[in-house]
């Protein structure tokens, strides 16, 4: 029997090469499936235990091949970061002696370091001088600046650290502090967590302003949050320099835009507002009325609503969104910042990019019935992984040629039609988001996913599971504030314990810069 002549690849057209690649991928998938069946049959005959079912890896894990694998190897050659188990400065030296035989010679000392922690209550009684002036006024010596109540800054520091970073509930904190010898009640612990925190709230709000001033990109996400028996939503905004949380009763686009104002209450109709109205297909009468009116700037919501009443306009919500966009751009914010999100519609504002991990998740959620459907889904996911790996390689070494090639390849990968309706719908959904998924080709510095937000939000979710809902407005505000400060400290390698010591003016605590100033510094500083 004569063998078939070798295939001349150079003579094949582009379409024929595509068909050949698909045929080979199908054949590989069939062979792999048959190989697995044979292995299972051999294991059954030998009486071996069944192979465990493992959850599918993430897109990042599956893409560690080709260029991504080379990047991983280069990363391995980089010098390792210093371990966090560094011995702190010595605070006490003790010399130990031993009896030795006569004639022995001293060989110096052998050091042995022990780390210890002393937790003891300290009760300070301040004797404050009292004077009465000749005119009858009483003068009392002031308390030290670090004292703001009947519990000192050490207690406040410990409670804040344990509750917000250690995720210790108020009930367990109560047991801890009483076991240490403090006379304290649950209500007093709640006051320590929420009362007199204006300076912390001010610094937290300034984080967002500084982040919006300097960010080349932001990742955003939201999660459910119960408050006082009602459903609310916590929104995260951040990047590798800061994290910021806010909890509100709505997660609408208008709410998100209002958060991006960073506390400024104004509304502005300008070119950015007009472009927003046109992009969202506002009625011609609404656009004309807003642009022809002489008044374009409004100090607060009351002035803006009065303006809308005077014009008697419809589409008030859309007009309000446009005015908020105009106010943000008018202050020079987000004019060149990419917002990376999942497919939640409220985040699709300004220059927008989509998370690839969420896009691929639609393929993972497809329920296949037949073996052929399984093969089609696995093949499509493999094509996505390869494409994702090449996008990561492009971020390291962008070029016009690779950008053009990746755009064309995107159409081929997500223009496939298999006849499996659920798969075809998922692929078409990804294709429709082409511009937002390929934003990285024009902005290689942005991330391909929202892992930054999801990692930061995980602390909030953990606290929600442990502590449940918040009951007071002060409690909700304290949770958002201290999680924002905690996560921002971590991004700048600042100990939260040191941060609290500096802000609470504990005498032996070292200084910690104001966090918004750190955000404004160049990344290499």
Index terms:
525 residues; five-stranded mixed sheet; alpha/beta; two-stranded antiparallel sheet; globular
Structure, described:
The chain has 525 residues and is of the alpha/beta class. Among the domains are: 216-345 and 451-491, no CATH class; 356-442, no CATH class. The chain is 51% helix and 8% strand. Strands 5-4-3-8-9 form a five-stranded mixed sheet, sandwiched between helices. Strands 1-2 form a two-stranded antiparallel sheet. The radius of gyration is 31 Å and the shape is globular.
User: What structural class should be given to the helix and strand makeup?
Assistant: alpha/beta
Q: Please tell me what the overall shape is.
A: globular
**Low-pLDDT runs:** none
Helix percentage = 40-55%
CA gyration radius, whole angstroms:
31 Å
Task: Write out the strand line-up for the largest beta sheet, numbering strands in chain order.
Answer: 5-4-3-8-9
Short description:
By secondary structure, the chain is of the alpha/beta class. The mean pLDDT is 88.
